[in-house]
Specification:
This protein is α/β, with parallel strands linked by helices and 212 residues long. The chain is built from ten helices and five strands; from the N terminus they run E-H-E-H-E-H-E-H-E-H-H-H-H-H-H. Strands 2-1-3-4-5 form a five-stranded parallel beta sheet, with helices on both faces. Helix 4 (88-97) packs across helix 10 (199-208), helix 7 (154-164) packs across helix 10 (199-208) and helix 8 crosses helix 9 (180-194). The protein starts with a strand and ends with a helix.
């Protein structure tokens, strides 16, 4: 079984490099490499990817807006943001829009493939420096803001905290000493209680509501 990946990257050299990396690696297939998001929905419907690798800085429709569009039409689609920036606001806006993960372009080819696979398997990968900034965003939220727990159980809050840290389902299962199926069950309950449909939305709600 191959993981089908669609690339949205305006830099021709990077786009071709990612195309070759993905198509030249066992278990991966690049089903589309696009220079912009002007025909976003058509491109997605034609290529039918499992994971979208999305550049945040795109001409016309930027990556953050593209995520918002895709979340409306394809709420289950897994989207991995890629950028050269470590800007906290862009990170937060990407998460808020519903991105599954957020990595830097200087990530090694092997790690990019690992992150794509992790996203496909339901994880929320982040480059270490990005994860650090996400945690700082959480810490910087107003202390006067009253936390809204959304009636999450302690276990659900523990698992949500793991998602905020970018942990995969497998890592969460290992950390909590439960099975991956149990993790999936808890996450379904978390989504229902938070009224969200993606990991990105769940993370954004956790940050905004100071749940974790």
């Amino acid at each position: 079984m191959q993981i089908k990946v669609a690339i949205f990257e305006d830099n021709k050299g990077l786009r071709q490099g990612l195309f070759q990396l993905i198509n030249g690696s066992d278990g991966f297939q690049c089903v589309g490499a696009f220079e912009d998001c002007l025909n976003l929905l058509h491109d997605i419907e034609q290529s039918k990817p499992d994971v979208v690798l999305m550049d945040i800085q795109m001409p016309g429709i930027n990556g953050i807006e593209a995520v918002r569009i895709l979340r409306e039409k394809h709420p289950q689609l897994k989207i991995l943001m890629q950028t050269i920036f470590e800007d906290s606001e862009k990170i937060f806006q990407s998460i808020l829009a519903g991105a599954s993960g957020y990595i830097l372009k200087n990530t090694s080819p092997a790690r990019i493939l690992d992150f794509i696979k992790e996203t496909y398997e339901g994880g929320a990968p982040m480059s270490p420096s990005v994860a650090t900034k996400v945690l700082k965003i959480v810490a910087s939220q107003s202390a006067s803001h009253t936390a809204n727990t959304f009636n999450l159980t302690e276990r659900e809050k523990e698992i949500l905290s793991c998602l905020v840290k970018g942990m995969s389902y497998k890592l969460i299962a290992d950390a909590c000493f439960i099975s991956i199926d149990t993790v999936r069950g808890h996450i379904r309950n978390i989504y229902e209680k938070l009224h969200v449909h993606s990991k990105g939305e769940a993370i954004a709600t956790a940050i905004k509501g100071k749940i974790v």
